Amino acid sequence: MRDARQLLADSARVVAMTGAGISAESGVPTFRGDGGLWRNYRPEDLATIGAFRRDPETVWEWYAWRRSFLATCEPNDGHRALARFFLQRGTAGLVTQNVDGLHTRAARDAAGEGAPHAALPVEMHGAIARDRCNDCGTRAEAEPLGDSLPRCATCGGLRRPDVVLFGEMLDPVVLDRAQSMAERADLCLVIGTSAVVYPAAAIPLATLHAGGRIIEVNTEDTALTGVAAVALRGPAGVVLPELLG
User: Fold this and answer.
1) Out of 43, 73, 93, 96, which residue is the most buried by the measure of CB atoms under 10 Å away?
2) Burial grade of 90 (CB within 10 A; 0-12, 13-18, 19 or more)
3) β-strand 159-163 against 139-141: which pairing, if any?
4) 8-state DSSP, 187
5) Catalytic pick from 103, 117, 125, 209?
6) Neighbours of 32 (CB within 10 A)
7) Residue 103 has pLDDT above 80, yes or no
8) Are 141 and 130 a contacting pair, CB within 8 Å?
9) Has 125 been annotated as catalytic?
């Protein structure tokens, strides 16, 4: 921890990338974990663009269930520590693979009435609390699922949750922004992710290849442990307040 805090103090531009591990402490089940079952389906069978095209009703029901579940979850001390850090430092920024919106909620809680732009995450895989038209791409606030599937107010196309489904490419604008942030940073905090899902897993490597360092915060070793300057073991909600405090 002493070495990690010194690295943090010596760094001018810090970027953080988070994965499912940080939100698991808030009760959000990891995508591939034991809590990922819904009815008789696997998430991997529902969260695909093919499933949405074949059976949008069932996919919508699943996402409506996920939304209602996530509404009961609260940001934990790890989310809050990152929000306070980036509001104070305002350097580089936060990138997340999570779609649960907990980083955004933590940023707004920390900022009060202010605009928390510095602490708002770049959401690489989208946000489950938003809708997006499957035809024209127009985004809108989520609405409760009614008797019929939601339609786009702009073109009349079928709306869907604003998340990246299996079989889809990440938004190149979002990916470029995250990549640019990582390349400009001299330190990357990698938190609660196995670092195996690309292209998100390439974000910390962009900092490393640009001459920066990596601090890993996880409960176990990952593919990045060997190249991290420091690897801190423990839950993010415990480690991050001490590291960033």
Assistant:
1) 96
2) exposed
3) unpaired
4) E
5) 125
6) 11
7) yes
8) yes
9) yes
